[in-house]
Amino acid sequence: MALLEISNLVVEFSTSSGPFRAVDGISLTVDTRQVLAIVGESGSGKSVAMMAVMGLLPFNAKVTADKMLFEGRNILALTPAQRREIVGKDIAMIFQEPVASLNPCFTVGFQIEEVLRVHMGMNRRQRRARAVELLQLVGIAEPERRLSAFPHQMSGGQCQRVMIAIGVACNPKLLIADEPTTALDVTIQKQILDLLMRLQQEHGMALIMITHNMGVVAETADRVIVQYKGRKMEEADVLSLFESPRSNYTKALLSALPDNATGDRLPTIASYLGPDGTFTEAV
């Protein structure tokens, strides 16, 4: 049985100009210990699909699916209280923009300990000890002192490590990492990716990596889903995707990588569009 199984996920937002479909019939499965990358340009619905799984979309979003199962349980049929028992504990998410995702009014220690209080029922002494352990785990120096720091007193890379500490605090079965290296310099990006992969292997988590970076996909993923305008254009194991892409959109993404340049200018995605001006094929 798959850890997470989604069939025909649709997300529509009500807007002043009418309904907008951000996710259009996405299906996917994630197995225990598997690393699945979801790749596509900004606006392709990657984050929205995963926010739907987490139940974190705004009130104007309508979410439907033929199936959305976590360990065989229908997520969409759960009450808010039942869903809160899963989200943050068994399914955790690392959000984009770590500095913005952390609450500036509370210390790093408080925000880590809050997860442990809600989901693990630890007392104050246990929470503090676990928070120190988590900061050590993600490679933050002087963890006891850092517990009293506020997010603005830490670098972007340190805040991302704190977000990862919060994400793995309850040893989740599935961790969703949404653009975990955005806005970080190249050296820090490498450190964060290495950390995520080490934690994934050590804790036996399934990992969904949301990214637009094909290099990240090549380094981390077992399987890859390529999205475009809310639709799944292709799904394959990572080696097959890079060696024999089937979708024109995937070919366009790969051709736009600087390493694949064949002339003075990179090819544009438009050069791969069909006669009607769209990528018509989808799986």
Automatic annotation (TrEMBL):
<dbReference type="Pfam" id="PF00005">
    <property type="entry name" value="ABC_tran"/>
</dbReference>
<keyword id="KW-0472">Membrane</keyword>
<keyword id="KW-1003">Cell membrane</keyword>
<keyword id="KW-0813">Transport</keyword>
<dbReference type="InterPro" id="IPR003593">
    <property type="entry name" value="AAA+_ATPase"/>
</dbReference>
<comment type="similarity">
    <text>Belongs to the ABC transporter superfamily.</text>
</comment>
<dbReference type="InterPro" id="IPR003439">
    <property type="entry name" value="ABC_transporter-like_ATP-bd"/>
</dbReference>
<keyword id="KW-0547">Nucleotide-binding</keyword>
<protein>
    <submittedName>
        <fullName>ABC transporter ATP-binding protein</fullName>
    </submittedName>
</protein>
<feature type="domain" description="ABC transporter">
    <location>
        <begin position="4"/>
        <end position="254"/>
    </location>
</feature>
<dbReference type="GO" id="GO:0005524">
    <property type="term" value="F:ATP binding"/>
</dbReference>
<dbReference type="InterPro" id="IPR027417">
    <property type="entry name" value="P-loop_NTPase"/>
</dbReference>
<keyword id="KW-0067">ATP-binding</keyword>
<dbReference type="InterPro" id="IPR050388">
    <property type="entry name" value="ABC_Ni/Peptide_Import"/>
</dbReference>
<dbReference type="InterPro" id="IPR017871">
    <property type="entry name" value="ABC_transporter-like_CS"/>
</dbReference>
